[in-house]
Hints:
Elements: H1 2-23, H2 30-34, E1 65-66, E2 68-69, E3 75-78, E4 84-88, E5 92-100, E6 108-116, E7 123-132, E8 135-140, E9 142-145, E10 150-159, H3 164-167, E11 176-183, E12 189-198, E13 217-222, E14 225-233, E15 239-247, E16 253-262, E17 265-266, E18 271-275, E19 279-287, H4 289-295, E20 303-313, E21 319-329
Parallel strand pairs: 1-4, 3-12
Antiparallel strand pairs: 2-3, 4-5, 5-6, 6-10, 7-8, 7-9, 7-11, 8-10, 11-12, 13-14, 14-15, 15-19, 16-17, 16-18, 16-20, 20-21
Amino acid sequence: MKKTLVIKLLALMLVCITACASSGCFVFGLADLLGKDGDNTNTTQAVIDNTQPEGNDGGSGADAATVTKNSKGEAVLTADDEGVTLLDNANYSFTVDYIDTEDDYYSLVIDTKAKNKSETEKYTFSIDDVVINGLVSYGSYYETVEAGDRTTEDISFYYANAPKGVTEEKTKATIVTFTLNVTDSDYETVDTLDVVVYPEGEKKVEMYERKSLKTDKVIYDDNDIKITYVGRENPYGSEYVYFFIENDSDRAVTINFDEVKVNGNASECYFYTSVPADTDGYNYIYISEDEMDDLGIKSGKDIKFELELDMYDGDTYETIDNKDLTFTVK
């Protein structure tokens, strides 16, 4: 009787093995069918194979989607995009894994993955020319990836160099633009890509608009560029003198304040900013607490500036304007 049962069980096992070999779903062991002691105790176990084939990036299993580009050649992203490849070639790849619009502090956070496919070369991935809602802003990202390695890192975006009234609250980002750069170990640029992100979709873009104040003072207005003094702050004893730059031209501009004198005295303070075409931005003159003391400047008292304005094209470095300016801020 027991021999007959074993023969029947062996026959059943062969049927199961044949069926499962074609489906790949589970495998029975004879000891499981008979019980560990060879009896007919029901201790059958199914081993499930959930292994998924790896994608090209060795990651989630599904190949990353290729990013959509607009008529300007810019890569276009929305908050719904996940696992989208921005750059991919024989040497490296750069992928956006996830876009977070609900971060507690930053206006926008993008989770990224940079992969170096080279066996000998290292590559550095970075971003610049960050603009949020039409206002020059800041994005923190600079990653060097060694040969054969990869890194996952966030890019965090927020308003920068602006007075407290602009920066103290998290800004709702409706459009974010930036340039992704790749350089090699010789610091030579090997790739660039302009990126535009619509966190709420292309139809829900709200550009930044500054409301003018009675205390505003325009110190320069020419060549489709306007520079306006907009206020002062004195945290921790140092002085921040803020300016709002409106670039209504069709070219990026870089602005320097050189040879700065404060209340008639030579100063080490400086001003430098770059503003893309058709974009606005804030920046400031910084006067340290020590220099405040050396120059006899009192917080809240008038400050007279004498300086040389040097303005040039941000791409060609051609001079746009160079002139002396004198103005007093209250």
